[in-house]
Design brief:
InterPro entries: Tscrpt_reg_HTH_GntR, WH-like_DNA-bd_sf, WH_DNA-bd_sf. With 125 residues, the protein is mainly α. Helices cover 61% and strands 6% of the residues. It has helices at residues 13-27, 39-46, 50-62, 80-105, 110-123, and strands at 66-69, 73-76. The chain is elongated and about 60 Å long.
Length: 125
């Protein structure tokens, strides 16, 4: 797994790390039980503070995506992928609700809305 950090994106570095690790877990690039790079190793690779990496790893652990094992390292949790998928579904459902409310207010028919969704989905590939 290769992390790419941007100092000009405006997004905090620890958030960039979290987002990329989450994506790697969801895509299967990081499998359940797989170890993440050590705090010091990743901090050195990215030329950032160990505290920044620690914050990212701790927040991922709080979310149930990884597990910190004292003296051994940080590992992807087996249920991390399923938990992330459930949370993503919940978030998407909320966004769909807001989108449908806006579409109805703008008098956009359901078929047009579905076509817009399909176009957006295909554009992401």
């Amino acid at each position: 797994m290769k992390l790419i950090i941007s100092s000009v994106s405006g997004e905090p570095i620890y958030e960039q790390i979290k987002d990329q690790i989450r994506a790697a877990v969801l895509s299967g690039e990081l499998a359940a039980g797989e170890a993440l790079p050590s705090l010091r190793k990743l901090a050195k690779e990215l030329r950032i503070s160990v505290l920044t990496v620690t914050r990212a790893y701790n927040e991922l652990a709080d979310e149930g995506i990884v597990e910190n094992i004292q003296g051994k390292g940080t590992f992807v949790m087996s249920q991390g992928t399923e938990l992330m998928k459930r949370r993503a579904r919940t978030r998407i459902q909320r966004i769909f609700g807001e989108t449908c409310t806006a579409a109805k207010a703008a008098d956009i028919p359901l078929l047009d809305l579905m076509a817009m969704l399909e176009t957006s989905y295909k554009d992401q590939s």
